[in-house]
Structures are given as structure tokens and as C-alpha cells.
Design brief:
With about 725 residues, the protein is α/β, with parallel strands linked by helices. It is built from 23 helices and 23 strands. Helix 14 crosses helix 23. The longest helix is centred in the middle third of the chain and has 33 residues. Bound molecules: adenosine-5'-diphosphate (ADP) and magnesium ion.
Length: about 725
């Protein structure tokens, strides 16, 4: 994502030089750094410390409080290993004296720690105070300031060794290791904090003045014109810094800040540069489209829409109607549609897709729908055939195992304008639709931007509708899908039964099964979900293949089916249609059923080992039930059985429940759950945007830094929408150093 301009300036600044250009880095250290992906001086400068420690003053051991997390410094006065005969556990202990009191630093079952210390060494230790009698820390982080027996490291001498009392000789260079905010890095074995710190210091000394400013410098541009960003044009964006440090200063502060505030301000500044680069990428794609492409006229004339709606059997919701109006406006406009349809599970996105396809078909253009799995493609295909074939529209299927299957009676070949439903096999070169007018991508989070673009290239700027059930907070949506307009289906079709969610531990399973059997006997159908296809011997992961025979037996004479990703496609299709037809009462499955499957009579869902699923995934799974008019039940089983109740006695001991699952059982608002999931698991995983650059962020977080994200979006928007300045019209912020 580094622009050519930024590269060129980085080269002249020497930031592309190998790390060995830095004093203190020989071939051994270069190898250790390379293990963490640090090859150039630029990499070195951008490798942020994982935290800073305030070593301007150390806590006095005498004053330590229980539970306090702090840093102390002192001399080792005794040390040794001790083994407890009864338990076989061992503890290695170092006793530290800082003149005020003694601190016991303990490492359990790590006798080899002994070789890192000597009596007489000066240490800095950081950790949590475990007890006061004696004063003790368990497994603290340590750093040796000076050692009595071992040679002082070469670098210590070079920057001025720290005196015995932990203070630097004022005549020498100020200490890097105490008396200041000190960086602590992620290390590889063999590289000490002290060495790494010294290398960073040397790199800054030699190259710090040569770090180029971002180009174009949108921050300077903005402040010169007195412009301040505001979220939605209303509220001020709360940012730590309105006065941003220059990029070079930010990189210095990233390593050796004067305060923790400076460190955070530096991080924000560097994060902003990343967001700006990301925004350039996204917004340029959109601008390109607007300037280059002429839209195909696909507004339709209702000749198919009218009979379609008349035969449907229900009326579109208000939300569906609103979204369809937005789509019609786009498809009749001058710029090709680029629209994201966000709608929670069960909100009726398929109907919107069908209606959008009709607009293209009415106008004489083909439409394709890409689904993330073969099962879903088949289901959509069946659905669209049921809806569209009575209108004489050919509906094809195109997957890895089935290429084009048109109904014999219709006698229409693939070369005709029609609708094709498929999987990513649609991207292959063999698939060439006639007059492609509309591309629909279902469950966008399963695909990357690159796949989307490849399908679009099958036509000449076809319209694009992507659909997702992952509700994305607005700012995030604008960032991730900044080149798309957003429509929201915020209303569920009427007549849906309530879904009750229950949390249980495995010891409740007999009761759960009795309940399921009763419900199935009353004519309801069930999904039973396991995280794995096969057992791998772990106790926490039951599997479809091992549970299936057991469940078949337990539910006799009811018919039980199984479904997972490794079954042949025809077999999957057969099982699903039997289930849909009510000839199979219970379906034992993996999360293959997670998206899109629509069987309204299924009202029961049991998910075992529920802790193994992400929240968004559980929400999708739960979205399979509650589609009919009767009440549905989703039962999550997780945690360990009675073993835990002996450990933590008490009446509620059998419920050591995951707080995520608890939150999940309390809401079925996909929006709320998505926020939680984003926080817990990050963005890339959910949105499948690995190609878009959002996972290259090292300083910024799309979740935590939303005001910055919005600020960057506005900066770039402002920059791109005004007449290009002479100097750098095609350049953008560099996130390579
Ligand atoms: P999703 O948004 O999860 O893809 P679907 O498109 O599968 O949801 O719709 C879920 C169910 O709701 C389907 O059975 C569909 O036929 C039904 N449905 C969609 N729109 C309406 C409506 N306006 N009124 C009644 N039922 C609807
Ligand atoms: Mg769907």
C-alpha cells in the first residue's frame, strides 16, 4: 500500500537499508530481528514497544500494597530453588532489597530461572504484588541493570552503564533503561530488552531526522485551512491531539516518549496515517467508477415484477419496499450501483435479491448471484426457480460440481439472458454470462473484495448488490465498505414466533434430550450442532460423526440425518431436501448450516460445545430457527460437567458460564452482538476483508479508534473532492515508514 512517492523518499532517507546499518546490530541480532519480520531500518522504527514503563521513580518495597501492579528496583541479596516433597512443585525465589524492605520474586516450576540471576545483581522487576507477608510477586517481568558476575553487555558500556543505585552518571549519555519512560518490546529468544532498546535508540539517532512526512500531508493541509473534522458534520470528534506531532516526532515518541500521553498521541498520529492510506484506497476505487463507468440501464418496467409480487403469497415489508426503491434508483442512474444491503438473519434479503434481479431481467440483462457455499447456492437456486420459472425466466446453477442445469421444459441455453446462481466457481473463466447487468453477492463477509471484483469483470460495469447479515456499526461500515452505499433492512417479516435461548452445562443434557424428544414427537424439527466433523480426541469438541449414530438411536423411531462440509454435494442436497420436506426430523450438523438455510418448520436448535463458536456465528446459527409462527428454542450447552462443582462449591457451581454466551442468551439484537464480537475477535475475521488492507493496520484499531477512522475518511474525502494540487495529485499517505 506504500505509494511510489513514499518509497522513493524512504530510499533516500535510508530507511530501506538492512537493519545491520544500525549500530549494535550484527549478523546474530539481525537474524533474531528477522524472526519478527524486522528486516529494514524502517521496520525497526515501526516496531512499536508493547508497552512503556514509568521508571522515573520506583515504588519503595516498604510501601507496596497488595494487588498493586508496579515496578521496583533493588539488589539480589539471596536466591535459590526449593522443592515441595508433598506436591512435587518447585519454586525459584529471588530476594530483592531496595533499602526499604525485601521483596520475594517467585517462579513456580521453573528451576532453570536460576541461571539468569546472581546475588549482587541490580534488577528492575515489574508485576503484581501477591502478598505482603512476605512481600511477594509471582512471575514478575525482570530486567538486569547490572550484573556482578557476567560481562556487562557491550551496549551497556556504550550508552553509559547504570550505577549501582540505578542512576546514570550525569556526565554520560542519559540512561535508556531507568530514570525515564522506558519502552518494552516483544522479543525473540536471545535478544534482551536492553539490547532491543539500545538498537531502537541507535536507529533513531542515525535515521530519526530523515523520516519523511506523509505525502500528501493531509494534516498540514487541513490545519492550514483551519478545518476541523466533525462526526456526521455535527459533533466534534474527541481526539487526544488536535496538534499532531510530525510523523518523525511521532516515531521518536513511539519509542522514547516523555510521558504516556505522548506515547498515545504518537500512536494515534501513526494510526491516522494508516487510516488515511486505507481511505485513499477505498475512496479512489469509488471515484474511478464514477468517472469512468456508465451504468447499464436496468431500472426495469415492472413487466415481471408485477406478476412476481402477485404470486408471492405475502407482501414485502416496508423496509423491503424502501430498499427496493433505493435499488431501482441506482439501477436506473448514471453510475453503476455499488450497494451493500445489511439485514439481520431472517430479514428477507432473498426477496430483495430476486426483485433486483427482475429489474435487470426486465431490462434485457442477465443477473448472477454468488453464494458462499454449495448448499446455499442450491437452496437459493431452488428458491429462485420456484419464484421465477413460472415467469418463464431460466434459472441456472453454477458450482464446482454442477455447471448450468436448465430445466428441460424451458429449452433455454446458458447463452440466453437469465439468472445464474452459483458459488465462487462463477469466478472461473468458464463462466461467461450473456449481457451481465447485475451481480449479487450473498453473505458478503465470506468473500473478499478481490473475488467481488473478479466477478464484476465478467461484464461491463454491471450493477452490484452485496448482502450481509453481519450488522456493521456505521463508521465501520463506511470504512470497510467505503466505496459502497448502504441500505438497511431493519424490520423482520411479520408472524415470526419468539426465540428463547437457554444456557446449560453438560450435566443437564439428559433433561435437554428429554425435552427435544418431546418436542420432536409433537411434530417440530431440530438442528443439533457440533463444532467438528470428526473427533480429534479433545474432550471439549464433540463431533457430528460420533454423535450421529448415538442420536439416531436415542431418538428412534424418528429419522435423524447428518450434514457437514465433507459429504458429497448430491448427498448434502438430498439430506437438506428431506429435512425441508419433513421426512427427517432432526439434523445433526456442523456450522455448514450457519448461513442462509431456510426451513420454517424447524423450531429447535441444540448447540453443544457452544463456547467454540464466535458470537456472530452463534447468531447466524440461531437465525435458522424462529422462522415460523411457533415459538422456537435455542439451547446452548457449554462448560464442564460436575467436575467444576467440586472445585468451586456452592449452589450455582455447575454454571461456570462464558460471559459471551450469557450476553448472547440475553439479546437477539445482531447489532449489539456484532459490536461485542468485533471487540473480542477483531474485524478482519468477520468481514473477510483481508484483501482490502484493513488487516495491515499496526497502530490503528478500527474498533477502538473510530473517531480517527472518521477523521481520516473526512480528510481524504476533502482532499480527493477538491481540484488536485499540482505537487502530488496521485500520491497518498505512506504507512511504510
Ligand atoms: P435472510 O435475510 O436471512 O436471507 P431470507 O431471505 O432467507 O432471510 O428470509 C427468511 C424467510 O422470510 C423466508 O422464508 C422468506 O420467504 C420469508 N420472507 C421474506 N420476506 C417476507 C415478507 N415480506 N413477509 C413474509 N415472509 C417473508
Ligand atoms: Mg440469506
Amino acid at each position: 500500500m506504500t505509494s511510489t512517492g513514499a518509497h522513493a523518499s524512504a530510499e533516500t532517507a535510508g530507511l530501506e537499508s538492512p537493519v545491520s546499518a544500525v549500530a549494535g546490530v550484527g549478523s546474530a541480532r539481525a537474524r533474531l530481528l528477522a524472526k519478527r519480520g524486522i528486516l529494514t531500518v524502517g521496520d525497526l522504527l515501526l516496531d512499536a514497544p508493547r508497552r512503556h514503563e514509568d521508571r522515573r521513580q520506583f515504588s519503595k518495597i516498604r510501601d507496596l500494597q497488595e494487588g498493586q501492579k508496579t515496578t521496583v528496583s533493588g539488589k539480589v541479596i539471596a536466591m535459590g530453588n526449593k522443592t515441595f516433597a508433598r506436591t512435587g512443585r518447585s519454586v525459584f525465589e529471588v530476594i530483592l532489597d531496595d533499602g526499604s524492605a525485601h521483596l520475594h520474586c517467585r517462579w513456580w516450576n521453573l528451576p532453570q530461572m536460576e541461571r539468569f540471576f546472581d546475588v549482587g545483581d541490580e534488577l528492575v522487576v515489574h508485576g503484581k504484588v501477591r502478598s505482603l507477608r512476605p512481600k511477594a510477586m509471582d512471575h514478575p517481568e525482570t530486567e538486569t541493570l547490572s550484573s556482578v558476575t557476567r560481562e556487562a553487555d557491550a551496549e551497556t558500556l556504550a550508552v553509559g552503564a547504570v550505577g549501582a543505585a540505578g542512576t546514570a552518571d550525569p556526565a554520560e549519555e542519559p540512561s535508556l533503561h531507568v530514570g525515564r519512560w522506558v519502552p518494552l518490546y516483544s522479543l525473540t529468544d536471545g535478544l534482551t530488552q536492553r539490547a532491543r532498546r539500545w538498537i531502537a535508540w541507535n536507529a533513531l539517532k542515525a535515521f530519526g531526522e530523515r523520516i519523511p512526512e506523509a505525502d500528501p500531508d493531509l494534516l498540514v493541509e487541513a490545519s492550514r485551512s483551519g478545518w476541523t473534522a466533525s462526526a456526521d458534520g455535527q459533533q466534534e470528534i474527541p481526539l487526544l491531539a488536535q496538534e499532531w506531532p510530525a510523523r518523525a516526532q511521532a516515531i521518536r515518541d513511539l519509542h522514547f516518549p516523555a510521558s504516556d500521553t505522548d506515547a498515545e498521541r504518537a500512536r494515534q498520529r501513526l494510526a491516522l496515517d494508516e487510516f488515511i492510506a486505507l481511505q485513499f484506497e477505498i475512496q479512489r476505487r469509488r471515484l474511478n467508477l464514477e468517472s469512468k463507468a456508465t451504468a447499464l440501464p436496468c431500472q426495469g418496467n415492472n413487466s415481471l415484477m408485477r406478476p412476481f409480487l402477485a404470486r408471492l403469497g405475502f407482501r414485502p415489508t416496508q423496509a423491503q419496499n424502501r430498499v427496493l426503491r433505493e435499488i431501482r434508483e441506482d439501477m436506473g442512474g448514471t453510475v453503476p450501483m455499488r450497494r451493500l444491503l445489511q439485514g439481520d438473519v431472517g430479514s428477507g434479503k432473498t426477496l430483495v435479491a430476486a426483485a433486483a434481479a427482475l429489474m435487470a431481467l426486465e431490462s434485457g440483462y442477465s443477473a448472477v448471484v454468488m453464494a458462499p457455499t454449495e448448499i446455499l447456492a442450491q437452496q437459493l437456486h431452488a428458491n429462485f426457480r420456484r419464484w421465477l420459472e413460472p415467469l418463464q425466466i431460466p434459472v441456472h446453477l453454477w458450482t464446482a460440481s454442477v455447471k448450468s442445469r436448465s430445466e428441460p421444459g424451458l429449452n433455454l441455453g446458458l447463452s440466453d439472458v437469465g439468472l445464474t446462481v452459483g458459488t465462487h466457481a462463477l469466478i472461473e473463466s468458464g463462466f461467461l454470462p450473456e449481457r451481465l447487468g447485475l451481480v449479487i453477492i450473498d453473505e458478503q463477509h465470506r468473500f473478499g473484495v478481490a473475488q467481488r471484483e473478479r466477478l464484476l469483470r465478467k461484464g461491463r460495469y454491471p450493477h452490484l448488490l452485496v448482502m450481509t447479515a453481519t450488522p456493521i456499526p456505521r463508521t465501520l461500515g463506511l470504512t470497510l465498505y467505503g466505496d459502497l452505499d448502504i441500505s438497511v433492512l431493519d424490520e423482520k417479516p411479520p408472524g415470526r414466533g419468539k426465540i428463547r435461548t437457554h444456557l446449560r452445562t453438560p450435566d443437564a443434557l439428559p433433561k435437554v434430550w428429554a425435552f427435544l424428544r418431546r418436542e420432536i414427537e409433537r411434530g417440530h424439527q431440530a438442528y443439533i450442532v457440533y463444532p467438528r466433523i470428526l473427533d480429534n480426541g479433545e474432550e471439549d469438541a464433540k463431533s457430528v460423526e460420533t454423535e450421529y449414530p448415538r442420536i439416531s438411536k436415542a431418538l428412534e423411531p424418528q429419522v435423524v440425518g447428518k450434514l457437514h462440509g465433507r459429504m458429497p454435494p448430491e448427498e448434502k442436497e438430498r439430506v437438506l431436501s428431506e429435512f425441508r420436506a419433513g421426512r427427517i426430523q432432526a439434523l445433526v450438523a456442523t456450522s455448514v448450516i450457519e448461513v442462509g438455510i431456510d426451513v420454517p418448520q424447524a423450531t429447535l436448535m441444540l448447540i453443544e460445545n457452544a463456547q467454540q463458536f464466535g458470537l456472530a456465528q452463534l447468531h447466524q446459527l440461531r437465525g435458522r430457527i424462529g422462522r415460523g409462527a411457533t415459538e422456537s428454542h435455542c439451547i446452548l450447552v457449554s462448560g464442564k460437567a460436575s467436575a467444576s462443582s467440586t472445585a468451586s462449591a456452592g449452589p450455582s457451581a455447575a454454571v461456570p458460564l462464558d460471559p459471551r454466551l450469557k450476553a448472547f442468551s440475553e439479546t437477539d439484537d445482531g447489532f449489539e452482538l456484532a459490536e461485542l464480537d468485533f471487540k473480542l475477535r477483531g474485524v478482519g475475521e468477520l468481514t473477510g476483508l483481508s484483501q482490502s488492507g484493513s488487516d495491515h493496520l499496526r497502530f490503528g484499531s478500527l474498533i477502538e479508534d473510530r473517531p480517527l477512522v472518521e477523521f481520516a475518511r473526512q480528510l481524504v474525502r476533502r482532499h480527493l473532492r477538491k481540484p488536485p494540487a499540482k505537487h502530488s495529485a496521485t500520491d497518498h499517505g505512506n504507512i511504510g515508514c
